[in-house]
Amino acid sequence: MLKIGLTGGIGSGKTLVSCLLRDFGAYIIDTDEIAKSLTNIGGEALPKIVKVFGKRVIGSNGLLDRSWLREQIFYDNSARASLESIMHPLISYYSDMMLRQYVGLYVVFVVPLLVETTIWLDKVNRVCVVDCDKETQIRRLSERNLSLDMIKRIISIQSDRYARLKFADDIIMNDSGISKHEVFKQVKMKHNFWYMLSKKFLV
């Protein structure tokens, strides 16, 4: 089976692209969705996170305080490493389990930090980068009620835009000057190409 790794910097538009691919019939394994399920009430990762970060990580509503946790991990490298040591193995495990349940031509793994972790590069046959300029990232993220300092911190931790593009077999451009219709056309072309390419994996 052809395995595509879909990645891009925060605010690049990975969610838009993955939703379009899902509409076209692609099988999507979104690691952010897996992470959220693992950290919701009853999620496998939640007790481990509480053990490492303490009860302060749980808000008054009984849910994971994601804003508080974000402050910890983006300003403390050791805290981020501790969280990754909990989340990455679980996300990889459940991604593999979802893959084993699928029978089809190609699958898309949506992984924000794909090029930063070799485990994902080893899982996929091709890397597709959703790309946009830094100014567009900042503008989109400011609409999520994140402070400018936090936005710059998150962007600085991720791979540099051009370093990420070096890993790309396919690129979908999504700068502020590109309309959703233009993104739609790019995604449709990639889907058609991957669909044809995937048939070679059946031979």
UniProtKB/TrEMBL annotation:
Function text: Catalyzes the phosphorylation of the 3'-hydroxyl group of dephosphocoenzyme A to form coenzyme A.
Q: Which UniProt keywords apply?
A: ATP-binding, Coenzyme A biosynthesis, Cytoplasm, Kinase, Nucleotide-binding, Transferase
Question: What family name appears in the similarity comment?
Answer: Belongs to the CoaE family.
Please report the name of this protein according to its UniProt entry.
Answer: Dephospho-CoA kinase
Q: In which pathway does it act?
A: Cofactor biosynthesis; coenzyme A biosynthesis; CoA from (R)-pantothenate: step 5/5
In terms of PANTHER family, this protein maps to: BIFUNCTIONAL COENZYME A SYNTHASE-RELATED, DEPHOSPHO-COA KINASE-RELATED
Q: Which organism is it from?
A: Candidatus Kinetoplastidibacterium blastocrithidiae TCC012E
- Residues binding ATP are 11-16
Q: What class of enzyme is it?
A: transferase
UniProt EC number: 2.7.1.24
Quick one: where is this thing mainly located?
cytoplasm
Task: Please name the CDD domains in this protein's record.
Answer: DPCK (cd02022)
Write out the GO cellular component annotations: cytoplasm
Q: What's one Pfam family the UniProt record gives for this protein?
A: CoaE
Location in the cell: Cytoplasm
What reaction does this catalyse?
3'-dephospho-CoA + ATP = ADP + CoA + H(+)
